[in-house]
């Protein structure tokens, strides 16, 4: 395998792992539910996407040969992250989960 | 080089999973726990992809896809249960 | 009988067929047959759930929009990651976003885009489909966010669906 491709794979893997960790740190340290929602929906999704891309490039340079399952995983995660975040936000608003003190604006009740 | 990077990546993702478990235990509200489980499922996908590269096999990727599907469905079901009190009306 | 054999949603059928080929990891005799059966059967079974098709849909504008959104998702992740590790406390805000789109598919695309891009998550939509409730992670004023979303995402979508 070409050294350049190896560097790309390594960079994508590290980027993915760091983003996954960022999402988890956000989930652990941010002050209330609505702010915690931001970490996993963006950082973690992109992190796993980067790792899936790395996996595709890796197997393309191996005797095993590459496939399309990684594309499906990436597309599926990107498509499902917004609806699940939306559903959880709705549930949290319905349960009136407390918001952090400096939140401005109102969540409405329907 | 890839072997070392893989080990570092697996370590980082495992730390991420532990942080999610921390949020799962601490809560403090039900939606926080649902969010933690959702993120745990995504971290499991990341671990499976990394394991596949380590062992040089594509066999586990199908499992990753299944976990993605199941994670989404269970998250939506739990969120709906919290909102409405029932999943299928 | 013959009208039963039609494809009421050609794009959905095409999508299902290609996803099945991807799942089967390559085009082969068996996967083509099963793919065709699924591409015919699933739209027939779910026909009553689908909303009316939009009157105008300029599909050639879609790839450009998707590229823009993908790029913004990567940038968004860096911004959120930076915000998480910086010691400053975020200033969250709930924003009511007045929608100018009226087609439900377009609103769904816009809401998903908002959830995936910088520091904003779509939380709810009003019953008359006129207002989106957005939670922003860190912003100074509501106008900033509304302006940015309108110029960057809603305008291309309005051109696509009108």
TrEMBL record, chain B:
This is Cation:proton antiporter. Keywords: Antiport, Cell membrane, Ion transport, Membrane, Transmembrane, Transmembrane helix, Transport. It comes from Marinobacter psychrophilus. The chain crosses the membrane at residues 6-22, 34-53, 59-82. Belongs to the CPA3 antiporters (TC 2.A.63) subunit F family. It comes from the Bacteria. One of its GO terms (cellular component) is plasma membrane. InterPro entries: MrpF/PhaF-like (IPR007208). One of its GO terms (molecular function) is sodium:proton antiporter activity. Pfam families: MrpF_PhaF (PF04066). It is found in: Cell membrane. Signal peptide: none annotated.
């Amino acid at each position: 395998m070409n050294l350049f491709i190896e560097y790309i794979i390594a960079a994508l893997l590290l980027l993915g792992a760091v983003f996954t960790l960022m999402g988890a740190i956000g989930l652990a340290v941010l002050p209330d539910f609505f702010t915690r929602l931001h970490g996993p929906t963006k950082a973690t999704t992109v992190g796993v996407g980067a790792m899936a891309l790395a996996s595709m490039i890796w197997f393309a340079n191996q005797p095993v040969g590459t496939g399309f399952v990684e594309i499906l995983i990436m597309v599926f995660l990107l498509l499902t992250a917004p609806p699940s975040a939306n559903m959880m936000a709705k549930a949290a608003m319905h349960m009136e989960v407390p918001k952090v003190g400096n939140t401005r604006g109102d969540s409405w009740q329907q | 080089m890839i072997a070392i990077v893989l080990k570092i990546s697996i370590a980082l993702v495992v730390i991420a999973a532990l942080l999610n478990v921390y949020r799962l235990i601490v809560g403090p509200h039900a939606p926080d726990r649902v969010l933690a489980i959702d993120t745990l499922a995504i971290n499991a996908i990341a671990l499976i992809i990394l394991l596949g590269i380590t062992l040089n096999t594509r066999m586990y990727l199908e499992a990753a896809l299944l976990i993605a599907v199941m994670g989404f469905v269970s998250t939506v079901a739990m969120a709906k249960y919290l909102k409405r009190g029932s999943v299928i009306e | 009988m013959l009208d039963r054999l039609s494809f009421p949603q050609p794009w959905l059928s095409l999508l299902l067929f290609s996803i099945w080929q991807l799942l089967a990891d390559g085009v082969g005799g068996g996967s083509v047959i099963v793919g065709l059966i699924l591409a015919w059967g699933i739209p027939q079974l779910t026909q009553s759930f689908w909303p009316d098709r939009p009157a105008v849909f300029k599909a050639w504008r879609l790839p450009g929009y998707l590229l823009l959104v993908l790029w913004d998702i990567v940038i968004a992740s860096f911004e959120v990651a930076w915000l998480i590790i910086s010691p400053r406390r975020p200033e969250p805000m709930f924003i009511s976003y007045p929608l100018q789109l009226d087609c439900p598919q377009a609103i769904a695309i816009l809401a998903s885009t908002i959830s995936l891009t910088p520091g904003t998550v779509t939380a709810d939509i009003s019953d008359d489909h006129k207002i989106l409730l957005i939670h922003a992670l860190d912003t100074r004023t509501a106008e900033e966010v509304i302006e940015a979303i309108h110029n960057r995402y809603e305008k291309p979508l309005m051109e696509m669906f009108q």
